[in-house]
Amino acid sequence: MMEEDREGLLRVSAHTIRVTEAVRDGDSLTFIVISQKLSGSGEYHVARTHEDFEWLQQCLFSQEEVPGVLGVIFPPLPAKPHLNASTKVLKQLGFLVMGKEWCTYCKALEIYLQQVAANTRLNKNKCLENFLTSSDAPGQQRVRKSIFNRLSQAVEGLRKEGHKDVDDFFQTERDNNFTLTGCSKSATERFLDVVLTEQKLAVACGHLSTCLHLCVEQRDDGTAQAFSQICVKLSEVVDLMKKNFENVAENNLSTLGLGLDLETRYQEAKKEMLYRRTCKLVELETASKNAERAKPIRKAAMDDLKMKSEKEFDQISGVAKQEIARFHSVHVKLLHQALILWCEKQLETAKETSASYSQHLQAFKDLGE
Amino acid sequence: MAAEMEPPPLGNAGETDFRELEDGEDLFVSTVTTLEYPEPSSPEPASLPAEDISINSNGPKQKDVSFDDDPEDLFAEATEEVSLDSPEREPILSDGPSPAITPVTPTTMLTPRMDLGAADMFERSLDEIEEDNNGDTFDIHIAVSDPEKVGDGMNAYMGYKVTTKTSMTIFNKNETTVRRRFSDFLGLHSKLASKYLHIGYIVPPAPEKSIVGMTKVKVGKEDLSSAEFVEKRRSALERYLMRTVKHPVLLKDPDVIMFLESSELPRAVSTQALSGAGILRMVNKAADAVNKMTIKMNESDAWFEEKHQQFENLDLQLRKLHASVESLVCHRKELSVNTASFAKSAAMLGNSEDHTALSRALSQLAEVEEKIDRLHQDQAYADFYLFSELLGDYVRLITAVKSVFDQRMKTWSKWQDTQLLLQKKRESEAKLQFANKPDKLQQAKDEIKEVRSTLEGKVEQGEKDFELISKTIRKEVSRFEKERVKDFKAVIIKYLESLVQTQQQLIKYWEAFLPEAKAIA
């Protein structure tokens, strides 16, 4: 349908974007993306594969026309989900692949799209619009070469991370980010271990329940019946324990697990942005030196380069400052939501389990002699 | 430390069940038929004591065992820890010639250390003793507590406080406290086993020895695993005593009463060194194998057949259960470790976070996780001490049950052998009738007649013994069945209560955390 296409404005309202499910098609996964039209007159339904998402990400990376684009903290895209991957690969993907039917992975994709759509420097890109609204899969289209490639080639071989900054604000940000990246990675990994152990416990309970059933005796006499009854009742309780572990693990990974995973990847994304800026700083400093030392014939050209570099650096720094401010509020919000949801879900599960246990305890006490 | 191999009991067709306790080794008796022990309230690992349990010894052959805290016997336990499922846990029955004498009557089983009063007790039949309660209802509670290391170095041992609270009149006081060491418990068990096993009573097995565990304690290793070991042992000793006194006959045994009441106990000493015991064990094992092959009992009683099978099955199932629960305990401990680790990293994350409210929430998160970790630990404790140990106890108890069935078989065997012998004597006597030596005839005839009539008496006794042990076993099995149900039910209720409690505590923690999480601006 033809709608007024205001230049550069996304036709979709960012916060309504949903990735509702993952459909398995042989060896690949297709994700259903639903978003509400800004005009309120309906929704868009599209099916996208991970390649499509990658295409989108590449598009965003190639936006040369956006000034200071290197200063943008690009929302991180979750790694490709391997369906029949080795445990090692799965472990790298961590929480995202552990949930029931890819729920958590879908949520991660959803947040990615929402964040892209909410970022004014990214959401004017036609590719995003295309991605969300076009019924054709965009993944086959060729993408312009990413600007990042050029930059990293320019500074290849040089470790810039430790390069001292000219601006205290940024130096502090870099230092903090360094710590936070390490901490969040560590926390994510350890939480992953917790969830994996909970899953193991669920399996162990399953075995125990089976063993209890094997203890049931077929004989007729009173004590045999009584003992069998005990075993059966106990196995019901053990089944409850199993269910509880499964629920607790699921709650963990779908809320706090996801939250920690996002936190880690976002801190990494911020780190990458800061690094790009640092690289630009190095480039600027090099250009300045060259301009100073240049022989008169080349001086004008060197000066030009230096000015260009300076302008770009200032643009990047400007954008970066805004992005960092935005980032702070976003990441706090994300973790905040994760913590609340986590607590609420665990509380609910704990109450359910407690009620069931109490019920069974009473039933046990009521068992006749 | 030369091995002292005690000679077989005098006049004994010494079927002695000698077992040297090794760590973790269960003293199983070969399974012929197994009795269900009706009484065990807190059965210990069904280990037969490393005692000489003679079916028909005429004296208390206290084949001394090496107790782990015997200073002379450093090597007595120098064997590996044997797991519950190890094939090594076969009972060692010594094989002796078929006894041609009557089974021992209780009075002759008295050890030199036995007190007076014992003789009294045994003059009545055990049945009577069992029924007669002096008007007492069963009311006794025993606690084992306050483990304290006594001495140091390899001579050190762990002393435990044993407190008995009761209103029963067979005891001198309503509350008695004594100090005992591990070898005292083993000594008690060994006495009870030698008195009662061969007549069909299921004697709860004493806790197992453990070299590794005890050595750690002795050398003063003050770490978590030593503490756990001591606690495990303390708990096992307590359950052992409770199970013993829940048996109406054992409760009244003077050795039991003395153990609980008297301030000084003569020390149970050990004289077996490794080599002697090792050789003996080998001999016994071989003999046992032969034994199993040669005793083919004509089971006229289908009940015993059934029960035997039933106990075999139960044994298998319980072992599987036990393994499964151990796995649960293990994983839960792992969960506790991982939770604690996560709590630490969450705390670090909270410290690094700029945003004040978020930082605080993350610190609270770390605290919640620490609390949850403690819950995991508590639950793992319950998993183990209630569930796992119960199953372990019953697996070991069943082997004691099997040994009683085995004793019955031996009793039958003895009786049969005596009968055979009688048969031969009768034949000889008949032959004499047709002999051609009139002068010696009368003398020979008289001799044979005497032997024959003695044998006739013995055969009669043999039959009586067999009937008695069969009767006793039936009763014991019935009691064991009932007790098993009661026991499991009681423990499982406790376990469920622990689950409920943990869960409710968890709810409290989440409810406390929720406002903290929401408080992030």
Automatic annotation (TrEMBL), chain A:
<comment type="similarity">
    <text>Belongs to the sorting nexin family.</text>
</comment>
<dbReference type="InterPro" id="IPR036871">
    <property type="entry name" value="PX_dom_sf"/>
</dbReference>
<keyword id="KW-0813">Transport</keyword>
<dbReference type="Pfam" id="PF00787">
    <property type="entry name" value="PX"/>
</dbReference>
<protein>
    <recommendedName>
        <fullName>PX domain-containing protein</fullName>
    </recommendedName>
</protein>
<dbReference type="InterPro" id="IPR027267">
    <property type="entry name" value="AH/BAR_dom_sf"/>
</dbReference>
<dbReference type="GO" id="GO:0015031">
    <property type="term" value="P:protein transport"/>
</dbReference>
<dbReference type="GO" id="GO:0035091">
    <property type="term" value="F:phosphatidylinositol binding"/>
</dbReference>
<dbReference type="InterPro" id="IPR001683">
    <property type="entry name" value="PX_dom"/>
</dbReference>
<keyword id="KW-0653">Protein transport</keyword>
<feature type="domain" description="PX">
    <location>
        <begin position="1"/>
        <end position="139"/>
    </location>
</feature>
From TrEMBL, chain B:
<keyword id="KW-0966">Cell projection</keyword>
<keyword id="KW-0653">Protein transport</keyword>
<dbReference type="InterPro" id="IPR036871">
    <property type="entry name" value="PX_dom_sf"/>
</dbReference>
<keyword id="KW-0007">Acetylation</keyword>
<keyword id="KW-0813">Transport</keyword>
<feature type="domain" description="PX">
    <location>
        <begin position="138"/>
        <end position="267"/>
    </location>
</feature>
<feature type="compositionally biased region" description="Low complexity">
    <location>
        <begin position="35"/>
        <end position="51"/>
    </location>
</feature>
<feature type="region of interest" description="Disordered">
    <location>
        <begin position="1"/>
        <end position="109"/>
    </location>
</feature>
<dbReference type="Pfam" id="PF09325">
    <property type="entry name" value="Vps5"/>
</dbReference>
<dbReference type="InterPro" id="IPR005329">
    <property type="entry name" value="Sorting_nexin_N"/>
</dbReference>
<comment type="function">
    <text>Involved in several stages of intracellular trafficking. Interacts with membranes containing phosphatidylinositol 3-phosphate (PtdIns(3P)) or phosphatidylinositol 3,5-bisphosphate (PtdIns(3,5)P2). Acts in part as component of the retromer membrane-deforming SNX-BAR subcomplex. The SNX-BAR retromer mediates retrograde transport of cargo proteins from endosomes to the trans-Golgi network (TGN) and is involved in endosome-to-plasma membrane transport for cargo protein recycling.</text>
</comment>
<dbReference type="GO" id="GO:0005829">
    <property type="term" value="C:cytosol"/>
</dbReference>
<feature type="compositionally biased region" description="Acidic residues">
    <location>
        <begin position="67"/>
        <end position="83"/>
    </location>
</feature>
<dbReference type="InterPro" id="IPR027267">
    <property type="entry name" value="AH/BAR_dom_sf"/>
</dbReference>
<protein>
    <recommendedName>
        <fullName>Sorting nexin-2</fullName>
    </recommendedName>
</protein>
<keyword id="KW-0597">Phosphoprotein</keyword>
<dbReference type="Pfam" id="PF00787">
    <property type="entry name" value="PX"/>
</dbReference>
<keyword id="KW-0967">Endosome</keyword>
<dbReference type="GO" id="GO:0034498">
    <property type="term" value="P:early endosome to Golgi transport"/>
</dbReference>
<dbReference type="GO" id="GO:0031901">
    <property type="term" value="C:early endosome membrane"/>
</dbReference>
<dbReference type="GO" id="GO:0035091">
    <property type="term" value="F:phosphatidylinositol binding"/>
</dbReference>
<feature type="compositionally biased region" description="Pro residues">
    <location>
        <begin position="1"/>
        <end position="10"/>
    </location>
</feature>
